[in-house]
Amino acid sequence: MNIKHIFFGALLAGLSSGASAAISLTDDIYEPNDTMATAFDLSTYAGITISAVELDDSDWYMIYVTPGQNRVQVDLRHLDAEADIDVELYDAAGVVLFNASSTTDNEFIEFDVDPAGGTYYIFVDTFGTGTSIGATYTLLWDAIAPLTEDNYESNNTPATAYNLSFLEATWLSDIFGSGISNDVDWYTIDVTAGWTQVIIDATFLHADADIDIRLYDATGTNLLASSTSITDNERINFNVGAAGTYKIEVRTSGTYNNATYDLWWDDVPVPVAADSGSFGLISLLFLPLLTVLRRKVRV
Questions:
Q1: Going by C-beta distance under 8 Å and a sequence separation of 6 or more, which residues neighbour residue 159?
Q2: Residue 287 — φ and ψ, nearest 5°?
Q3: Taking CA 135 as the corner, what is the angle to CA 134 and CA 136, rounded to the nearest 5 degrees?
Q4: What is the pLDDT of residues 108-147, one digit of tens each?
Q5: All domains of the chain in start order, with CATH
Q6: pTM of the predicted structure, to 2 decimals
Q7: d(Cα 110, Cα 190) in Å, to the nearest integer?
Q8: Residues ≥6 apart with Cβ < 8 Å to 48
Q9: Which residue from 270, 284, 262 is spatially nearest to 240, judged by alpha carbons?
């Protein structure tokens, strides 16, 4: 996604949506946009962040969705300590399609509208009768082609995680194809006693999506290790300390856009300390052979 910031002056000068600039817009640019009928038209600014918008009343924005690009994404960033700001998506008839109304910072909408496209509206307001004096937010919207599923769905929760327990040292692409990052993906692994060093590799292009991986306990709630760089690929190399079931989470930081990834895991013996003597040296020399023999036994 090409995210840009635009000058107020550049907007007034009528520069195209491809222009790149750095000064944030303020709420004054959009007013009056207190009703759907007076909504500010953001249709030509898909993929552009509008920043430091002052929320002193309800704000409406109109967007036009191109046919076929009907997955609408709305990313609203704010500090809940300033105001409990929510965001909603409406159709042209004024029917609410999606409501994002957490009690924490930021809100996000991802919703498939009519494939034929058309006009839709984004509504930003504070929850209930809460005040918004002095509160600001940034807003980004975009529309992309509908996302597709990979062959490991449905695995969007720890409870529905796809089981890779007996598929260690095997890439997803060699099982049922690469994973597709269009939502959170969970995988189950089983670690053998004495082989508690868990290695997880995820390969992908950061230009396609900022994909991260995390390792959890069997419940999927206690985080043990993570890899969240802002470059291609992620790796976890972590000693879980005990045999048992564990969960791998693959998620995208930001919006999902059909980016593909490959995933590989293995459990190996914990590395022997450098001063462990001749036994440690022998263990290191024969580790590859032991790993092969173990996999043959497990198959």
A1: 220
A2: -60, -45
A3: 120
A4: 998 889 999 999 999 998 886 555 566 888 999 999 887 6
A5: 8-144 (2.60.120.380), 171-268 (2.60.120.380), 273-299 (no CATH)
A6: 0.51
A7: 33
A8: 3, 4, 5, 6, 17, 140
A9: 270
